[in-house]
Design a protein that fits this description.
By secondary structure, this protein is an alpha+beta fold. It contains 31 helices and 26 strands. Helix 3 packs parallel to helix 5 and helix 26 packs parallel to helix 28. The protein starts with a helix and ends with a strand.
Amino acid sequence: MSRLASRFALWLLALALLSVIRPLMAAEVEDANERDDEETLHLAGLDTDGPALLAFFHARARADVDRDRLRVLLRQFAASTNQERSLATAEFLGLGPLAVPTLRSAANDLSEPEITRRASRCLKWMEGSKAATLPAAAARVLAKRKPEGAAAALLDYLPHADNSEVVRAVTSALAAVAAPDGKPDPALLRGLADRLAVRRAAAGVALSRATPPDQVPAVHKLLQDPARGVRLQTALALAEAHDAEAVPVLIDLLAELPIEQRRRVEEFLQHLAGEWAPAVNFPSEDEVARTIRRDAWAAWWRNVEGPSLLAAIRRRTVTAEDRVQIRDLLSKLSSGDFATREEASRQLLALGRRSLPQLRDAAESKDAEVARRAKLLTERIEQDPSHHLPMAALRLLSVRRPAGSVEALLAYLPFAEDENLATEVQKSLTALALRDGKLDPVLLRMTADSKPDQRIVAAEALIHGGGTQGRDAVRKLLKDDVPAVRMRVALAMALARDRDGVPVLIDLLPVLPGESVGQVEDALYQLAGDTAPTESLGTEPAEKKKCRDAWAAWWKANAERIDLGRLVRRPLLGFTLLCDPGGGRVYEIDRAGKQRWAITGLQMPVDAVVLPGSRVLIAEYQPCRVSERDFTGKILWQKVVGDNVINVQRLPNGHTFIATDSFVVEVDRAGKELYTLRQGMMYHAAYRRPNGPIVCLMQNNQCLVVDTTGRTLHNFPSNHATNMAGLDLLPNGHVLITQSNNNKVIEFDQSGKSVLELDAAGARTATGLPNGHVLVASQNNRRVYELDRAGKTVWEHKESGPVIRARRR
């Protein structure tokens, strides 16, 4: 059981990292998009406060115009206060084409310069390619501001939206403002019965996304709406919210929908069904083919009813009775009677994964026969696909919701085969946390469980799935005696935009061990951005206290204006990015090794990272170029520097950090070089910490830490030896360095002390994974493999060509 407890702890750690900390680049893109939207509005002369945005959308919803009102608005262009001028601009921009003749006349009238200037600017944003960008940007900013009346204004405007992109932006904004204080907005409730189908659909989608479906029964009436588009959009939104009533509606629509809409439904169903999806992928599009598809999916839905799902999970969950039976069977493996040993082996094999924990222990037995049979049985069970639990069983349980689901998931969690299954369990528990407006009683009881791991699992499910009452139910755990519990609850609270979590995270900085404190620092840096304190945590108690106090002072000064929305969940997808310099390509594979996409025709790509929005940042060695591309290879941005590029990194502020053989440089979005550092010797690798120092591997086999002025902060011997050495900066402040000449990967703490040493055959580069494992790229051996903290290979992929860099996302 010690191994089981250890593995369960690893799954929980993986869950913390997979579901709590989002990579900084995602925060960077979200912030950048928000800045771009606000800049768009400012360029148009439209203020970004609530009243101006509401005036804009109210005006856009008009079908006619009062000429006297237009004359009043023109006079307001020259008003004495900025608020009057701003509101007039907002209303004119909102009127759009209705106001064009009046604005053209004013733009040609030179008697009032201010009126002429503002009229001309409005016209630029009413005509041409920019016309549709304005309402989409205004909707996204309105979703952030959330002024009273936002839902009504957006819903009124929706039928007048410029194009489908604007419709999507408005629908997303409606979801963001749909439930102020946790209660459905009355305008959206009225919208469910609106005479216009576009408003009914948008109201249904917004309420499905913002509130538990069982709390707004009126949304379900749209599943029988006469308009097919309303049924489709509402059913998809409800199904994504784990509502079982929506799935049969989607299946019935398969026989009616045109091909593009049908594919959207099938993509959702295939994700939900996973390994159990029916094989109905054939080219025919006639009415018979559509009927066959519908009937195949209908049969699937009938076969995945709640009791079958529970049975599948329970067959892979060890009970107390199982342990007794397995112990007795294991004792018979040492019997002197061959038939007895064979029968015991047969029964252990029949028990499947339930016997694995005890079989793994028995494989270490001093009895050679017991150890041999236990190893053989372990291999057979692990390799036989019939013993594995499909993730679909866990996913579907949160949709079917049979009685006993929560108990079954909690019992199964310690026996989950890998972190992906453990993550799926936590997602399902989150979906089951609230039912009929009440918190699940089993999860509530577990918040007082004697085992810290159980308290953590229950708390995270209640926080993310139980709304305000879920957070209130676990708030007491912010004062739990166990620091790990306080940390996980505080992180989850911060993710749920509850400010009570942040000061707890700060207080934990001097208390937590290195592998945990890195998660806290990462979260704090996401929230702080450029306002983060400069003090580092250090290793001494006094240094840790100073850092904690600096963060406490930062929170006191910034608590009211920090946007906790910067900290969002983004689990790992299980995709691995690979750089093949010899073949001139950067490509990505899934967990099974199947290629998802490839960018070819590159010149010695040595580093790359996937950015949000299906983009890739690539460093090409010999053309001395860094480029940002889409998955087809189209260049979206590039920067050519004066030397061979070896590393590239997108920073949280949107800048790009580039390391070359002879210097490092940081450039802004326009490509302007902000600083350039040279050390008088060759660089072998370099990256920059978020808002922090630069870590470099130098020609003299030293790891050098410098600030952006080039001042040396710290250095220590790293013995990495080769050019383009492997370097990775870990969230806990440690660095991961590849010693290719020694076939080693070493983790060094901030003082330069080795804290982990792994044998890594042929290692060229290595990166740390959120679960604490290390992903190694072996150029000469043409393989990529994942090592756990004990040095065991837990995943491997072999390639036909050399691989110099691998990254997991």
